[in-house]
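Batch 3, record 17
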Amino acid sequence: MYEVNYIVRRAVEEDAKELAKLILRFYMFNEEFDKAMEVSSEAEEVSLRIAEERIRGNNLLMVAAIDSKVVGYVYGAVLENPLLVRKEIGVLKELYVAPGFRGMGIARALVENASRELMKMGVKYIAAEFPSMNLVAEKFYEKLGFRRFVSIYLREV
Amino acid sequence: MHKFYRGKLEVMAKVPVRGMKDFSIWYTPGVAEPSRAIGKDPDLSFEYTYRWNLVAVVSDGTRVLGLGNIGPEGALPVMEGKGLLFKFLGGVDAIALVHRAKSVESFLTLLEWVEPSFGGINLEDIESPKCFTILEEAQKRLKIPIWHDDQQGTAGATLAALINALKITGRNMKSSRIVLFGAGASNIPLYRILRKLGVPAENMVMLDSKGTLHPDREDIDKLFLTHPWKYRIAVETRGGGLKPGAGLGEALKGADVLIAASTPGPGIVKKEWVAQMNKDAVVFAIANPVPEIWPWEAKEAGARIVATGRSDLPNQVNNSLVFPAMFRGLLDVGAKAVVDETIISAAMELAKYAEEKGLREDYIIPTMEEWEVFAREAAAVAVKTMELGLARRNTTFKEEQERALTIISQTREKWRKLWEAGLIQRPPGEA
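Prediction for the assembled complex:
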């Protein structure tokens, strides 16, 4: 494989356009697993708006960059439940690395960096979301020490 | 003809049966001793039985030749025909094993279950990409060589022709720009083999029906999930430096070599595209029955060397140059596996033979008539298998060459004698 140096950092304004592409890719990837996640025809325009909103927002958004090129991202949030001892839990909602840059540990670095940031925000647990059929993700997260936690079932109505 | 002969092969005895008494040697009680020995050491089945020379030609009948899904019984004539080629060209005993195991897992289980009967397995007519999964997984699970001709046979024959084509045009393989058109059973292993020979990934580009395999292609994540072989090539080659979705015309600009193994032509590869290739270009158009571009068209467009899959045109890239001798060599050393390095050694021997005969633009690979090359090829395979530690028996190049030559020529001799004696029936209407 090619030797490359990447860094993981918080997303900034300048990342918006490239980030939007990756977000769209992420959704197209998930579409492969479940037709309930079919991507809308306007997704291309919407993804840019989403990227900009997220960069300005309070949730966790980190990117992996090689020089100035964004090649991966992770998007996470803190969920609160006052009824629990651990009132806050960190959730990784989206994780994506561009195909040309897989197999170099970028996804892992994104997860670990995001986890650290979420810990700073006070959480003790980190969860990760992905489609049930995504066995690649299942293997990936299990390797990083994640376990099965909550199941979401779906039916058409 | 098929109805007249009711099949093409039969089983014949090869031991003396001087009288009924001899059956006590070959059957009970004489057979107990080898059986007991094999019971203790299963590998002795390669020494005491016909297993060492027996190959199963396996098919589920879902994709036979160009005939589509005709069922296992429908596949039988084809598999038996393959057996005939095995016997006649390589002296290999091959029987058809058609079956109803549909899923990948049941197919693999079937192979595991019948493994003790055979010295090798020849998989036939499996669709892509299922063929990659089955071959790779079967090679992991079984301790006999597993072969899929559409993959290894075609890749091996293509490599042999490519080696000599590059020689004639004064090219170094490692610095040549190679375009692989078609991402099916033969080009995918060929890519892997070229990498093993030191061709840098970025010097190659592969295209399927949707264009260049590229890490930024729309459907790349679909490939990631459904076709990891294409995916890996897209990522490794980085689309050969082309734009995602670039077509063959784009890819051929400044290319040295085109290896088209895609859909039957003509007109699939356009003359004006070939014209954009480098001087003295090498064009292989190996789709059957009609090549992607006719040789004369490719030549008019400036190609110096053209090869096809057809026997009526020069430079035929033909699987039959590979698989019979390949198995001859593998079986003679009781091979536990066949790997890319084995295929490379066979291809190099084929190439060397043609070179010794004298390379010409219309002679870069031996023809089927030059069957003495098979013994050399078998010897190269046997020696390589030993070197790789994959052999159950030892031999030398010279010894194996002689053995292979003996086995193949004796097979032909027996045939000729039977024919002359009238024991092989004359076809109806022929004197």
